[in-house]
Amino acid sequence: MRTLKVNEIIYGAFAEQHGIDFMYNMDLNRPVNMEFTMKTEKSGEDTEVNHKRGKWASQILDSRNGEGMWEVFHSLSQPTNKKVLTTEQAIRRLRILGFTKEDEAIQIVLERMCLCVSGRKKIDDYSEKTHDWPLFERLMLSAWIRLFDPENSIALEVAGQWAYIVEKAFSSGQYNKNDDIEAFYKQFGRKPKSSFETGFGMFYHVALLQGVLNSATERLLLDYYISRAEGIYYVYDKCLGKLPKTFASKKTSHYLAAVEALADYPQAKEKLSFVANWLISNKNECGSWDLGASVKDGVYFPLADSWRRKELRISDCTERISNLLQKIA
To answer: Which residues span the domain enclosing 117?
Structure first.
């Protein structure tokens, strides 16, 4: 029986769900890296937390079409039973459940996205007239490619185009819209038309630009996102510098999603330390977290197959927050 590191406390409810005997050592003063020894009752084999084998992942994978996709690509709205899942909703949820570029389901989508960004095959027939759709699509798809495969050369080419614009837009030491517009014109040969083409305010910009900016520009960009009144479009529509008043709330879950989007930037630990301190201050007496039942949205939660018991919800919330603290604390 080996010792398995799991992010924070996993309660007996998890063990009951997965048929596991476990022991744990917990230091309440440390937010992450709790040590667990786990052994399955039935086979005696070691096991680990793996939501990829759970029912939510199975439902998503079973709903794929013949090409291994899910209907049209674009939509980051909250999924509902009344609407067919989009490919973008599906891969967002699968990523949250632990899927990576090593998984076949993701490989199929990555290949298709690369073909589209490189102009060899359409992703689907969907478009929106309010945008320069080919430009938006390249931005969107390249962002998703980099979320799963940060060093992908096709996506990095697009990231380089936007990095040039960002560095020019912040060259004065703060965001300047006129510099943004001028750099956009130089890069794409025309002035910006729609709102997404200036301001770098979307989730896609955040995801695309990680690791491609110089240190000074990255620092300014993170300050910009933290202070931006509109938050990050598609994720959280409030200022990230203002912490949610009620910790156990759906608003906090969405706030965390925005912080998670920034957490992989090299300077995130420094810039987001105030979030880490807030999260640590909201641990309960057992060293875990509970965001409440309202966060069950089919996107970020649940991770476990069921929340019939409160402990399962606490386990999921603790896992998510612990993973985030590993990056920003």
So the answer is: 51-126
